[in-house]
Write a structure and sequence with these properties.
Two copies of one chain form a homodimer. Chain A is of the alpha+beta class. Chain A is built from six helices and ten strands, in the order ββββαβαββαβααββα. The longest helix of chain A has 18 residues. In chain A, strands 1, 2, 3, 4, 5, 6 and 7 form a seven-stranded mixed sheet that branches. The interface between A and B is large, with 36 and 36 residues. The first copy, chain A, binds a DNA duplex through helix 5.
DNA sequence: ATTATAATGCGTATTTATTACACAATGCAA
DNA sequence: TTGCATTGTGTAATAAATACGCATTATAAT
């Protein structure tokens, strides 16, 4: 086992999209009393780990992602570093750390990333044990400062999506307009008129209609689209308009 | 002297606005050969320091800012953490570290902030020695990975300004429309029609005209305005429009 | 003084984008 | 075979962004 750097960690907020809902992948954390078997801690945490000696922080994030989802080359964005002295000071977190990781530093600074995955490609059951998806608006009890991390990750993702078409990372390669629309509605927390959304998307040269039809749980078959990152990069404008 | 945490630091990109140009505050770094007096290193760096034992990272950034500009309560935004293993590995940086800070860790992770200051309130000569302002598009030779930090800070600032009226932090309390316009042009790297800018700004309820007139280096006196953060917070909309 | 000039104040058309809503077609379920 | 949720494609009304016109002001140069 490689040596870890005890006062620096990375945490990953892994977003997926399923059931027309934005979801976060969480890992169960349980601590039982050695003697009585009583459950002392039962909650969830993000995926995270310390960085290793000689490891770039971005590589540490990719490693965590690979370990917990089996996926590589996925969308990953560093959004904030949490370095408050009290961030691990809640009693249950102290109990957990003292029991499980007595060698870890008292002041751990955590560099946080969020990632966007096609949840059909991750099967939590087959991957890391105790991992499962939770809708972002129905989170279970969370350890450490991970609730704050998730809500900040969501804020960054929302801001990002207003400015850049990152949502496609959450969908299968081929998707329908209604899937795309509900994804936008879920992340941006807004209702969009279907017909205006259609008009807006048809202006986006990088969303390319296919000849195929898909039925995404609906009655009528809908046209399938793909996203071309390449076309987007080539046609993106950098002159915008002030949003206020 | 308080103990430092040797593998975590903060760096601050301090932006000011002067001469219709966005400026960065830099500190001179010089190393002379003990015997020959030859200049081994002569370049500039950002303001930075290690975090102290028991110190929040945000507080470390505020401390650095206070130390180097004398200012408190100024706009400060964490934008990225740099943690590549090779970020301090250039020969001149190694020479500097080995000579000046032999105890510092080999892998230092730096949490970066940018801040926006009213440059009329900072007088580099009276503050930290060897500090001076440089236009962002005419930077001198820089140490460590600080050039990358500045260009990333500028990118974050630009994105921020498209979405939120943070530019006022760089101006005196009272300013004219032409000052504001050239600030927007400098940061957004775009030309704006003066009359359309006037129209746009007059829609912003949080930019409040005063009865006073100012002459900002121009022939004709121009009307002065103030920015009300309070009015902005109360009138901001969170439904935006996709920028693509 | 007078004049040229650069900056300012305040417009009006034109084009483009956003919003609101209409209606026919499809294909599964009852 | 019919009902109906979903999909495909509009059009009209409104709002915003862009391009540009022109008189006014105060200073610097003559």
């Amino acid at each position: 086992m490689e040596a870890i750097i005890s006062n620096i960690s990375v945490d990953c907020v892994i977003f997926g999209f399923d059931n027309n809902t934005l979801q976060v992948l969480l890992t169960k954390r349980e601590l039982k009393d050695r003697e009585t078997g009583e459950l002392l801690i039962a909650d969830y945490t993000l995926q995270g780990h310390h960085i290793l000696v000689g490891e770039n922080i971005d590589d540490a994030a990719k490693r965590v992602l690979k370990d917990k989802t089996g996926l590589e080359n996925i969308y990953l964005e560093q959004f904030q570093t949490f370095g408050d002295i009290n961030r691990l000071r809640r009693p249950k977190d102290q109990l957990w750390l003292k029991t499980m990781y007595p060698m870890v530093s008292d002041h751990v600074v955590s560099v946080c990333y969020y990632s966007l995955v096609d949840s059909t490609k991750v099967n939590p059951d087959l991957q890391h044990p105790y991992s499962s998806w939770f809708p972002v608006d129905q989170l279970p009890e969370l350890g450490f400062d991970h609730e704050e991390m998730i809500s900040m990750a969501l804020e960054y993702l929302r801001n990002k999506l207003w400015r850049e078409p990152v949502g496609f990372e959450l969908l299968p390669d081929k998707f329908t307009l209604s899937q795309l629309q509900s994804l936008y509605e879920a992340i941006l927390n807004t209702e969009i008129d279907r017909r205006n959304f259609w008009k807006k998307v048809s202006q986006m040269k990088f969303v390319i209609p296919l000849d195929e039809k898909h039925k995404a749980g609906s009655r009528k078959k809908a046209q399938a689209f793909i996203f071309s990152k390449d076309v987007y990069e080539r046609t993106r404008k950098d002159k915008l308009t002030l949003s206020y």
